[in-house]
Amino acid sequence: MPVTTVPVAMRWSDMDAYGHVNNTEFFRYTEQARIEALAVVKARPDTGTLVVRHEVEYLVPLTYTSSGVLVDVWVTHVGGAGFDLGYEVATQDEAGGRTVHARSASTMVMYSFSAAAPRRISAEEREFLARLDGPPVQFRRSTRQG
């Protein structure tokens, strides 16, 4: 599975009154990783990507660590104007072992600011996204009816 791994710094203030990283901070971690992993997709003028759906499953509580987190990002589906991303937010111990704290998925849409509407994914963008192709996120419990 082609994955881009992005190290993301943590802040002490990411933790909440319960002594673990607040759930909303996981969205920030995946956002930072997504921005870095997809910088090429956003290179076109007057265009961007919008998050239209986000799902997260918390697996193991996360506490502050000065080494930050590692966020794996990959593409799980590419459509006409949108694409889906998968993520794993993990920490790595001194021996190199990883603990996955959360899995999540986002549905993104390519957007034209001048037209104020979604736009088709270009051939170059499609080629770039294909290089990050991977499997669907394996949630423990699916909320989708199927």
TrEMBL record:
Domain of life: Bacteria
The EC number(s) this enzyme carries: 3.1.2.-
Keyword entries, A-Z: Hydrolase
GO molecular function, a single term: hydrolase activity
InterPro entries in alphabetical order: 4-hydroxybenzoyl-CoA_TE, HotDog_dom_sf
Name of the featured protein: Acyl-CoA thioesterase
Species this protein is from: Aquipuribacter hungaricus
Top enzyme class: hydrolase
